[in-house]
Specification:
The chain is α+β, with helices and mostly antiparallel strands. About 50% of the residues lie in helices and about 20% in strands. The longest helix is centred in the N-terminal third of the chain and has 42 residues, at about 25-65.
Length: about 425
């Protein structure tokens, strides 16, 4: 019986939705409602897709630099390699390589300029496994040239130092001694070593401003980390299996160590981007809610126009609930047409942007890493927009439908 009532209400609602109204103003208000919902839905799809594209692009830059997992102490700065279960982690079938890393801030002097940069000591195969050579923009990615230890700098750091690779000027590094300190002679409180610059890399991230790669033996000698590391980096054979592999590594390493995947290494960045996306979604959803309020007016006027039909249905034994559902379905049908049209329009706009790059970033004279807004469509965004449309349409359609039910109760046929 309940199913038959729903079918009847839906059938009459569809007849009302697509039939010509006696008063043209009702058609106008309905069209305005559909257009408002369509434009708002399309805007939601486009903006969310642009955020996805920006997030994937920026995340890709950072993820290309970061290892799949970084293992470090929960408390403390360095730990002995002998006390760490490196072999057990390397034996996991999904792990491709486990690398030792010594990293810390050092003062680097080049000619008459100085910069405080992060020196990262790695083994000779590290750059090949992590494909840092693909980020190279000048010189070569070699960390040893004969017996001379070499350095590869980020583009920002090299620019600040006014680095010239075609000259044989060495980088002079200063690092405070961990044990011996002579207050009478401050210069004796620092270890000094020299590196020959061989290359410059670029990741299009903040890492370009602060990182310098060097051989791990050189970093250990400079910082006096004999048999110690500041972190262990794990590279997987196939990236993406973060949850399962991370739990295995955490179990092997123990509570003394923290294991961070690619996203956790840039947690603040990704959380900020997700927060911005959520704020924009809420703002556009509110605009959609305001646009959907036109439905209240169109249904209210339709109720007045269909008073005779309502009276006939009541005389034939139609319940108050049936009549309420008719106008409720009418409002939701209007919203659904606008919402689905908006999803299609948004998808078309996104496809045009992906193929033709219509909307550019900045003007002709600007210098950006990418010249157009990146777009990445995701099914969950489309479902979220459709669900938002249905919820808003239900709320806005309930208002006139409830008032109609009350008027039927006070004015029974």
């Amino acid at each position: 019986m309940r199913t038959a009532t729903h079918k009847t209400a839906l059938f009459i609602a569809l007849r009302y939705l697509f039939s010509k109204k006696q008063h043209n103003i009702i058609n106008v208000i309905s069209i305005v409602s559909i257009l408002g919902i369509m434009v708002s839905s399309a805007a939601l799809v486009v903006v969310l897709s642009v955020f996805n594209g920006m997030q994937d692009m920026i995340g890709g830059w950072f993820n290309a630099f970061n290892p799949d997992y970084e293992i470090s102490l929960v408390e403390g700065k360095s730990f002995a390699v002998d006390s760490f279960p490196k072999a057990e982690i390397a034996a996991l079938p999904e792990v491709a390589a486990v690398s030792e890393v010594v990293s810390d801030l050092v003062l680097i002097s080049y000619q008459d300029r100085q910069e405080l940069l992060r020196l990262k000591g790695v083994d000779k195969d590290y750059t090949t496994r992590n494909q840092y050579d693909k980020m190279l923009i000048d010189g070569t990615f070699e960390l040893n040239r004969g017996e001379q230890p070499c350095a590869v700098l980020g583009a920002g750091a090299a620019g600040n130092l006014l680095l010239q690779l075609n000259r044989y000027d060495l980088l002079k590094l200063y690092y405070p001694k961990r044990t011996k300190k002579n207050l009478a002679n401050p210069t004796d409180a620092f270890s000094t070593q020299y590196l020959y610059p061989t290359g410059v890399f670029s990741t299009n991230t903040a890492y370009d401003q602060e990182y310098v790669f060097c051989p791990i033996e050189f970093a250990r000698n400079l910082m006096h980390y004999d048999g110690e590391v500041t972190s262990i980096e794990v590279q997987l054979k196939q990236s993406g299996r973060y949850d399962k592999t991370q739990s295995k590594i955490e179990q092997i390493a123990g509570a003394k160590y923290k294991v961070l995947n690619k996203f956790q290494q840039e947690e603040s960045l990704f959380k900020t981007m997700q927060s911005e996306k959520l704020v924009i979604y809420v703002i556009l959803a509110f605009i959609l809610f305001v646009a959907a309020f036109n439905i209240i007016g169109s249904i209210g006027m339709l109720v007045l126009e269909k008073q005779r039909d309502t009276a006939v249905l009541r005389s034939m034994g139609a319940s108050k609930g049936l009549i309420q559902r008719i106008f409720l379905y009418e409002g939701m049908g209007t919203s659904l047409i606008g919402g689905l049209s908006g999803l299609v329009l948004g998808a078309v706009i996104c496809l045009l942007q992906q193929v033709f790059h219509i909307v550019k970033l900045g003007g002709d004279g600007t210098n950006y890493l990418i010249s157009y807004y990146p777009v990445q469509m995701r099914v969950w965004d489309f479902l979220a927009v459709l669900a938002t449309v249905l919820i808003i349409s239900l709320l806005t359609s309930l208002i006139p439908a409830r008032k109609l039910r009350k008027s039927i109760q006070t004015n029974p046929i």
